[in-house]
Specification:
Strand content: under 5%
Number of strands: 0
Shape: elongated
Number of helices: 4
Radius of gyration: 27 Å
Helix content: over 70%
Distance between the termini: 26 Å
């Protein structure tokens, strides 16, 4: 029963806990570098800020280089999609003609009836698309929240990492 309650609580709180878990993981991996900077005489606060700024600059630089490439590839996909769709349709039709032989006109008529039935379901499809857009909007909001909260958690965890480890070791 306790395991079931714990599983339910984790599932419910997962969106809230994610920035904290990611922030603590980042702090775990960056802590040795902050320790090294501290051993050189740099205050822990300055080392943590410096390391997080360098990490943020690396992420921003990666995005600056990746986003134009992804945008260009998306434009190329959009430009070639109609031709590729036509080519695929012709390929499928040729294959169906070869496989079905004289029964192809019957199959084509059935396919046309199915396509006309599909147009009847378009209102439901529109509702589904609207729900998907809402879901993606929520996902984008969660992503930006993650990008804002995670560095703060990582910063404060890096500051207090020796205290956190000492407390855990005392248990």
């Amino acid at each position: 029963l306790v395991g079931l309650i714990l599983a339910f609580a984790l599932k419910t709180l997962a969106p809230v806990l994610l920035p904290f878990v990611v922030g603590l993981a980042i702090a775990y991996f960056l802590n040795p570098i902050v320790d090294k900077l501290t051993s050189f005489g740099l205050p822990r606060v300055v080392g943590a800020v410096l390391l997080l700024l360098v990490s943020a600059a690396a992420v921003v630089a990666a995005l600056v280089f990746l986003i134009p490439i992804l945008a260009e590839q998306t434009q190329q996909l959009i430009a070639t999609l109609p031709a590729e769709t036509t080519r695929l349709k012709l390929l499928a039709e040729t294959f169906a003609r070869e496989q079905l032989g004289p029964r192809f006109p019957e199959a084509e008529a059935a396919l046309n009836r199915a396509m006309s039935g599909l147009t009847d379901t378009l209102p439901g499809l529109a509702t589904s698309v609207a729900q998907s857009l809402w879901s993606h909007g929520t996902a984008a909001f969660n992503f930006f929240t993650l990008m804002l909260v995670t560095p703060l958690v990582a910063f404060y965890a890096l500051l207090d990492w020796p205290k956190i480890v000492a407390k855990v070791d005392s248990w």
